[in-house]
Amino acid sequence: MALDLFSPVNLGSISLKNRMVMAPLTRNRAAEGGVPQAINVTYYEQRATAGLIITEATPISAMAHGYPALPGIYTDAQVAGWKKVTDAVHAKGGKIVIQLWHVGRISHPSLLPNGAIPVAPSAVKPAGQAFTYQGLLDYVEPRALDASELPSIVADYVHATQCALAAGFDGVEIHAANGYLIDQFLRDGSNKRTDNYGGSFENRARFLMEVTKAVVDVAGADKVGIRISPVNPFNDMQDSDPQALFNYVTSELNQFNLAYLHAIEGDMTGKDNTFDFLALRKIFKGSYMANLAFDKARGNTAIASGHADVIAYGVPFIANPDLVERFRTDAPLNTADSSTFYGGTEKGYTDYPFLNA
Ligand code: 8OZ
Fold it and tell me: Mean of the per-residue pLDDT values for the chain?
């Protein structure tokens, strides 16, 4: 029988009961100190029938924050909070990895320790405004990191990975997508460096490779995935030759034997693009996760045709905690309320109905 969304699969050492992955989704509902709280436990536990849950993007240090009410993964209290989440998901037979995040320039001094200036590969201010506790505020020109500072950020990834393992996660996903710090190094719209971390593909990918090696050394490659978004312009990102850059990045990642490569297959703004994602899938030797507005039919087709091993669903999992069962039985889907995506309470978070509820 052909493979489909309901076929089990292993991503590295993580065994999935089906191929429907809950995509990482920023929800801005952590307690003070970036500590996951009871409603966060309920939210993830409700979605444990996914083959794999990828948590919301989670800052690896105080300097990695860029939005209000994010949960972190660098203090003891955060680890204790996340442990309740992983215990609840595991008790329901689910698997969960945490997405490790540094926002780089997509932040604001009001969100950072002592009003620090956000850091980035280069002092290039992104267009747009930051979401802060005071509302939307213009981005500021970030401070270009000195190469001598990078090992301490790599150390923050290592520390966060240790925290993630202590919190009981099945693995970690390195967020190298959507215009945040690692992606800012990768793409030449935001990386104007003239040292070993800028210019050539090899140089622009150096920071990602250093982070990956360090995280793999702690967690084991079979517990590490990476998310990329080669052509997503979100957060004011551009690159002069994304296909060649990400073909290179993907082939370099082969050295690690990672659990999976997760690609946002296009432009979240809905504009057509001509990027060849199948080329990445063919270059990459491990499992491939595709994301971008898939439905059940397109997900099944992508798996049966070999385009992807697993499919990540975002908005459908916000509105349908039992999305797997709904797809399995062709049941109607709840509609997502975008006004409650970011921040708030249980409303639009843990109160979407299950089938027959
Ligand atoms: C939407 C709003 C805030 C953050 C990403 C972490 O795009 C995000 C994000 C998305 O990866």
Answer: 97
pLDDT score, position 356: 82
pLDDT the model gives residue 1: 66
* 139 given a catalytic annotation: no
Q: Which atom of ligand 1 is found nearest the CA of 235?
A: 7
At 239-267, the pLDDT tens digits run 999 999 999 999 999 999 999 999 999 98
Q: Ligand 1 mean position to 295 CA, how many Å?
A: 21
Catalytic residue among 67, 139, 180, 260: 180
Which residue's CA is the closest to the ligand 1 atom numbered 4?
26
d(CA 100, CA 109): 21
Ligand 1 near 178 CB (within 6 A): yes
Sequence ranges of the domains in the chain: 9-340
Calculate how far, in angstroms, residue 154's C-alpha sits from the geometric centre of ligand 1: 21
> In sequence order, which residues have a C-beta less than 8 Å from that of residue 204 and are 6 or more positions away?
185, 186, 187, 188, 191, 197, 198, 245
Report whether residue 26 contacts ligand 1, using a CB cutoff of 6 Å. yes
User: Under CATH, which number does the domain 9-340 receive?
Assistant: 3.20.20.70
Q: Which residues in the chain land under pLDDT 50?
A: none
Q: Report yes or no: 120 and 105 within 8 Å, Cβ to Cβ.
A: yes
99 C-alpha to center of ligand 1: Å? 11
Label residue 16 exposed, middle or buried (CB < 10 Å: 0-12, 13-18, 19+).
Answer: buried
| Residue 24 confidence (pLDDT) | 98
Question: Which ligand 1 atom sits nearest the alpha carbon of residue 175?
Answer: 11
In this structure, the residue with its CA closest to atom 8 of ligand 1 is 26
Q: pLDDT value at position 273? A: 72
What pTM was computed for the model? 0.98
Instruction: Give pLDDT tens digits for 8-45.
Output: 999 999 999 999 999 999 999 999 999 999 999 999 99
**DSSP string for 162-208:** HHHHHTT-SEEEEE--TTSHHHHHHSTTT----STTSSSHHHHHHHH
Distance 37 CA to ligand 1 centre (A): 20
